[in-house]
# Entry
Amino acid sequence: MPFQFDHLRTLTTLVDEGTFEAAARRLHVTASAVSQRIRTMEQTAGKVLVQRTNPVAPTAAGDVVLRYARQVVLLDGDVLAELQAWEGGADRVPVPLAVNADSLSTWFLEALAELPADLGAVFDVHREDEEHTTSLLRSGAVMAAVTSTPEAVQGCAVEGLGTMRYQAVCAPGFAAGHLGDPVDVERLVDAPVVNFDRKDELQDQFLRNLTGHEPSAPCHFIPASTDFAKTILLGLGWGVVPEQQCLAQIEAGRLVALAPDHPVDVRLYWQRWNLRSPLLDRVSEGVRASAAAHLHPL
# Structure
């Protein structure tokens, strides 16, 4: 399908930036030029590609073209890199990735930080629950994702990264006030709990597996990984926290492990476009190395 390269790059930029005006600023053209390029693409495709909402959103047809556009832009960046045409002032290749919040706050950023400065890429990280990151792969919104889904999304390759281990914890004062001494985990059913958001089921799953009961307690929602752990440390409720964020606090006596012999393990996988790309290969190598250093083996 004869899409022009500038038009494909305009589509990816528009979706990333969210508005015609923001895309125009990034592309150093006018908003009307961005609009005209998108209309030309829609005429070529014979379908509406972008919903004119705020922010804009690709249609189902737009998702198909967006995925193609990102691949073309990525391959163009790879060619420039191989020709050593990328320089410090040149445009970098955008690399959109999807990562769950706990990985983002514990080990994933080290993977990006260890990549060479002259890679010629900028990262657009989408924070999403590990059970839902694959939807961003399917839509073409991202090129790769940390996910809990071992089945490869169509057009993607998948590999195991490791197991992220969590412990159910609470503050000592919370334990004394709600769970008794010694701690009675059966009382967790009625004790205030902290969830990340309404997609977070780790606490409920832990409770069902440990006690066989359905949770019925009041629930706080704290949608930031570091603040989630801090909320538990401050005694507002109990929750399931990554070991990287709680083991030192447990050892120091600032947190109580509620069931140390019953950790919650979440298997993580790396899914990426099944596309030969030196840039995406380097990113994958960095993710693989950081996961090996911080996660338990699968």
Summary: The first strand starts at residue 50 and ends at 51. Residues 78 and 277 are 7 Å apart (CA to CA). DSSP finds eleven helices and eleven strands in the chain. The mean pLDDT is 92.
